[in-house]
Amino acid sequence: MTLLASINVFAQQFIPVEGIVNARDLGGYEVQGGFSVKTGKLIRAAHLADATDADIAYLESIPVALVVDFRTDMEMKGKADRDIPGAKYVHLPVDVSGSSRITDEEKTSLAGGQKFDVRDIVVYAAFNEKAQALVEAMYPTLFFNPDCQRQFASFFRMVLETEDGAVIYHCSQGKDRTGVASALLLAALGADRETIVADFDATNRVYEKDVKEYSQRVIANGGTEKELAVVKAFLGCNTENFIKALDAVEEQYGSLENYLKGPIGLSEADLETLRGRYLIETNSSNRKNQ
Predict the structure, then answer these.
(1) What's the whole-number mean pLDDT along residues 255-268?
(2) Is 4 a residue whose pLDDT tops 50?
């Protein structure tokens, strides 16, 4: 799929919800062999804590059968997902901090003693060495850390076990962990690298206003590209670092498909099951998905 085609698909992917940020249907992306991803089956998003009653009714109508929450316990405090009637909820925490973990005490210090919120601390965090190290290591951690690999492997097992209905998966902002999960799903379905990168980078259009505003604040405090990278990673997503991580995966495993068959534990039969369930012939994609 060309970049322009991916952008056109992206414009149609937002689902009609008001209280859920960055909620997008993977449906419509073209993959190898003359197929495209079915709509209403695989939905990526930010948390569901602020979903409205109308949002919940819409998700129930799809219907959503499985909700997978990649957030850590700390991220969930005061922000528990709203229930979707008929859907199974699974908490599957993926911790990207690793050895670069920012402690609760450091977050309190960075936030000036206020309640932690990424927008409150991002200007301070931009100049914090641990935050800078976390940003640099984030995507390699998601792809290569054994704990993260185990959680993504569990995610795929849950998706494979969900034979009917839609799967909605999310983290806090629906960008990094959700972005990598989307990349792996698209790779499993046969999407090319350009499509995978385009879907990942599309998040930056969602958070563009915040990134611009807080980047200006960091610059005003003497920030350079090193500090701005923290803002982009915390409030948007760092596509350049994501591409470097993809390069590292391909260098070690040969391809994303080989990676899926390696640490993620998918078999050829698993890939065939996913493609049979979530793909439709492209020339039939204008008809109602079954």
Answers:
(1) 98
(2) no
For residue 146, cis peptide bond before it (omega within 30 degrees of 0) = no
Name the H helices within 41-117.
53-61, 73-76, 104-110
pLDDT value for 112: 45
Asked whether 45 and 20 are in contact (CB, 8 A), the reply is: yes
Which distant-in-sequence residues (6+ apart) come within 8 Å of 58 by Cβ? 15, 16, 17
Show the tokens assigned to 10. Answer: 């992206």
Q: How far is CA 29 from the centre of its chain?
A: 16
| pTM value > 0.85 | yes
Q: Which domains does the chain have, with CATH numbers?
A: 3-284 (3.90.190.10)
pLDDT band at 142 (very low <50, low <70, confident <90, very high): very high
For residues 147 and 95, is the Cβ–Cβ distance under 8 A?
A: yes
**Helix axes of 268-278 and 146-161: crossing angle, nearest 10 degrees:** 50
Q: In what order do the strands lie in the sheet with 42-45?
A: 24-25, 42-45, 166-170, 64-69, 88-91
